[in-house]
Amino acid sequence: MNSNKSTRPKAASTYRLVIFLAGLFFASSVYANDPLFSGFWAEISAAQIIGTDGAWQDLSAGIGYDSALTGLSWIAVLSAQSDGKYDSFFDEDHVGGFAYFLEAGGITYTSELFTLRAGRFSHFDVVENPYSLFVSSLAIPAFLYEIDYRGNWLRFLTRSVELTRNSEIGYPDRSIVFKTLAITQPNWEFGFQDAIVAVAPTVTIDGVTSPPPGDGSGPVFVPEYFFNPIPAVFTQYTLGGGKSPWVQRINHNSLMGFYGLMRGETPSAMRWDAVAQWLVDDVNLNAIVNPDSPHQNPNKWAWLIAARLSTPYGAFRFSHAGAHMYTFQTSGHRRYEYTYYPDVLFPRGGGLLDPIDYRDNYFGFYLGENTAAFKLDWEWQIPRLPVPGAELHTAAALSYTVSGSKSPSNPWHEHDSWRDPVPDGRKYSTRFLDEDILEHGALLTLEAEWRSPLGPGRYTVGLRANFGHWWNVLRLESVDGDPVDRQTGLGTALFPGASDVEIYRPSNENYGLAQIEIYASYRFSR
After folding, report:
1. DSSP string spanning 125-140?
2. What's the chain's Rg over C-alpha atoms?
């Protein structure tokens, strides 16, 4: 467990920021009286977080439009956070220590069969679970294009997500296309999923082969991957392999998998559902077709199983997920790791480098490779409240995780090949939580949220508490084992040696967390 939170003092301009966001909200509400703004909404929210990591604020303001008549909608949300995790391009005294973020900004069209959207959105897997495998369950905004078709028995979703474009740090231009093709029925669903990471073709400079720094001209959007329903692995091999006049200079990274979902009711009319999901980054077919071959590359799999039961006292869900070591990682100099950023460090002011929290970086299963996770959660909307239209939601979750070494931008960690760490007498190279020291962590989350009508809208107030402890917490280290917190130098994305990229490893440190969050929001709509 890592934290980059800061408790640095805030200037008086903090209050000017609050006034600005409030002014944006109320000005939008005034214009919404125009009949043309039927379906218009505006929302402002604020949160205060206090805990062992320090104290900070999270503010946001958003406006949008949802038309039931035309099916068109648009959204724009701006947030400001003072946790010190990232720096603003403004001077700290000018914005009170806040950094700004584009949480959402785009347009959507929805019909009976189709949903089309383009813009910056938080996006998720079609499998709704805290440990979803193909798309992180964390709300990470990204610029995307999406077509989602939902018929009576068929669903087809294709989504192109921009990862990096014209990077100042030196990252190559990169994108991911994620697709799902599923057969759907009222009580069950079965689907095939695949994804492919597209990265700018490699070039050789001074004898070193690697993708060039991004200039905005790389494969940020690849139409063939987006529109072609054929699994990306076949598209990749057809376009980039063999000897033909149409062959392309590509070596992208494709992943595939399946999911199944079942729904039903118990004899006492309690609803239940169960889901399983499997992701394959690489598979050792030789173990089946040629077990005597010396080439037994590691399986790189991730898996999820979960079940949920709705009772008169709330809905209970159990989830378990895991991933082999090396899953989601790059290979050599290609920088096609299944992540938002092809590195584990990013530059701060003064030439300093800070770790990128791997949970914010993995595009898929947010805990990453070499991990096993277990979670029990409960949520309940308390019925029969004395206030008309009011709702009281309560929730609790308890999770336990075990993690080993991981580094999405280093192909084989401290080794030059997957063959190197295979011990004598062990034929196969698949690895999973096999180190002497592992990180163990437990986290308890409690939440209560009240929603109630107020004037032309609704207000929400809530309280969330987190209590956790991690033993042998993962810390970023150099390949040689030296600790890395902040260091001086250039970003590793500018260095050609992927095997030199730092690694998150279990350490001798423990970490405890106690945190309280109080939040409130008001949403106007008409």
Report:
1. -SS-STT-SSS-SS--
2. 24
Q: Which residues contact 317 (CB under 8 A, 6 or more apart)?
A: 306, 307, 308, 309, 375, 376, 377, 378
What is the distance between the alpha carbons of residues 456 and 393, in angstroms, rounded to a whole number?
22
Q: What is the C-alpha to C-alpha distance for residues 277 and 258, in angstroms, rounded to an integer? A: 6
Residues with Cβ within 8 Å of 369's Cβ and at least 6 positions away in sequence, in order, are 300, 323, 324, 325, 326, 327, 328, 329, 406, 408
Tokens 């492919």 belong to residue: 196
Q: Helix, strand or coil for residue 27?
A: helix
Per DSSP, the residues of 78-89 read EEEE-SSSS--S
> Which residues in 292-302 are b (16+ Cβ under 10 Å) and which e?
eeeebbbbbbb
Query: Burial level of 131, CB count in 10 A (0-12/13-18/19+)?
Result: buried
Distant-in-sequence, close-in-space partners of 44: CB < 8 Å, separation ≥ 6: 21, 22, 24, 25, 60, 61, 62, 521, 522
Nearest Cα neighbor of 304 from 338, 329, 279 is: 279
Q: What is the pLDDT of residues 106-128, one digit of tens each?
A: 999 999 999 999 999 999 999 99
Distance of alpha carbon 484 from its chain centroid, rounded?
24
pLDDT tens sequence across 279-324: 999 888 888 888 888 888 899 999 999 999 999 999 999 999 999 9
Helix (H) or strand (E) holding 401: strand 391-403
Q: Is 401 exposed, middle or buried (0-12, 13-18, 19+ CB in 10 A)?
A: buried
Q: Burial-class residue 350 by CB neighbours within 10 Å (0-12, 13-18, 19+).
A: exposed
Amino acid letter for position 64: G
pTM above 0.70, yes or no: yes
SS3 content of the chain, % helix, strand, coil (to 5): 10, 45, 45
Cα 402–Cα 404–Cα 407 angle in degrees, nearest 5: 130
